[in-house]
């Protein structure tokens, strides 16, 4: 099977998976995006920058996070990943088929949420760089979780741990002024997204959190490659 046919096959399988898993789509995509879109209409939350940041972190952690790891975990349980590996599907083909839909779900959130919440974005290029990169980080974290997990249950437990961290750290950054907390948040996987909404016009592309974001992406790409190679070794 050539490269084009393999890509067509894995994308077809992915579409069939999404069509047959309405519950997962509702829980990881429909609920977080829909609920926060409705909450943005409440006057107390409308125009609230911190709440917009919290909403985006939660949506990323579900649509680009838990959704990915739970999808891979189920494929491992049903031996679908083993079948794909044995059929010759390459790492980038499998990862592309996994990434494309969660990424599009995240794009729908970070593109429209600022207008929903009535928050003016001072620099859309910087905002888009941070939003796209943060979504990618969540995807890569959960790719690794899904590939290393033994089952969907294990994948969901670890991915919801990442959800908790992603939503607790911004609260700590907002409540505490200590240097240690700021340092931890800056160098965390959501540091750039958190700092951007704290500083807005004062945020600079040279901020430490941008460097941390790049390091997270590079490190997670290496980890994802190792995780897929480990699965290939296990199933060949």
TrEMBL record:
User: What domain of life is recorded for the organism?
Assistant: Bacteria
**Residue ranges of the TM segments:** 23-43, 49-73, 94-113, 125-148, 155-173, 210-230
What are the record keywords, sorted? Membrane, Transmembrane, Transmembrane helix
Q: What is this protein called?
A: ABC-2 type transport system permease protein
């Amino acid at each position: 099977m050539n490269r084009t046919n393999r890509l067509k096959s894995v994308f077809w399988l992915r579409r069939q998976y999404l069509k047959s898993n309405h519950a997962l789509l509702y829980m990881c995509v429909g609920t977080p995006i829909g609920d926060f879109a409705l909450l943005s209409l409440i006057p107390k939350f409308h125009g609230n920058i911190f709440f917009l940041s919290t909403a985006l972190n939660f949506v990323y952690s579900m649509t680009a996070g838990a959704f990915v790891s739970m999808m891979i975990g189920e494929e491992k349980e049903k031996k679908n990943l083993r079948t794909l590996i044995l059929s010759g599907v390459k790492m980038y083909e499998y990862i592309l088929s996994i990434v494309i839909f969660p990424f599009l779900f995240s794009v729908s959130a970070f593109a429209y949420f600022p207008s929903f919440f009535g928050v003016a974005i001072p620099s859309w290029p910087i905002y888009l760089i941070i939003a796209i990169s943060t979504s990618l980080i969540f995807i890569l974290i959960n790719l690794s979780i899904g590939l290393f997990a033994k089952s969907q249950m294990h994948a969901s437990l670890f991915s919801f741990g990442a959800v908790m961290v992603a939503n607790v750290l911004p609260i700590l950054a907002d409540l505490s002024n200590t240097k240690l907390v700021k340092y931890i948040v800056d160098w965390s996987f959501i540091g750039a997204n958190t700092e951007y909404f704290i500083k807005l016009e004062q945020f600079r592309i040279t901020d430490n959190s941008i460097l941390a974001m790049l390091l997270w992406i590079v490190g997670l790409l290496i980890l994802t490659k190792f995780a897929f190679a480990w699965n290939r070794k296990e199933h060949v």
